[in-house]
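Example for tutorial group B:
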């Protein structure tokens, strides 16, 4: 689980700070996009925390799909955001790391709990497959 969390944080940080230059979408800065991505991760944690039985697992699948679509939207917006300067990147990394730790504090334990319930993971795992590509 710790590896999952670290991988997620590293991917998010590297993706959002490594955006190529180009016309951003107005107010789409790396900070705005990062806040949106962190909010999406917290939402994913809340969804996973809501899974307690087969019915709630089945109900969670379309919610997981919706959050993943928002994550991909953040990824696409980040590709259009201007590249950060060295000083901006350092400040951003500190802010992002704090937010990611908050999100992982919700998402990590929820996923760990579900990993002990293979019957529920079997239902939601297809919806979670490839989530790292959403960053």
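The residue assignment follows.
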């Amino acid at each position: 689980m710790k590896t999952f969390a670290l991988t997620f944080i590293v991917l998010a940080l590297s993706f959002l700070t490594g955006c190529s230059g180009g016309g951003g979408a107005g107010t789409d800065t790396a900070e705005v996009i990062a806040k949106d991505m962190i909010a999406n991760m917290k939402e994913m944690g809340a969804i996973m925390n809501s899974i307690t039985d087969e019915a709630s697992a089945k109900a969670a699948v379309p919610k997981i799909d919706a959050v993943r679509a928002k994550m991909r939207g953040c990824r696409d917006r980040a590709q259009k955001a201007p590249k950060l300067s060295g000083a901006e990147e350092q400040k951003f990394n500190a802010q992002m790391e704090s937010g990611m730790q908050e999100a992982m504090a919700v998402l990590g334990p929820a996923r760990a709990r579900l990993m002990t319930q293979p019957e529920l993971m079997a239902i939601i795992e297809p919806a979670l497959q490839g989530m790292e590509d959403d960053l």
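Helices lie at 2-17, 30-49, 54-80, 86-115, 118-128. Compare this with the pattern of hydrophobic and polar residues in the output above.
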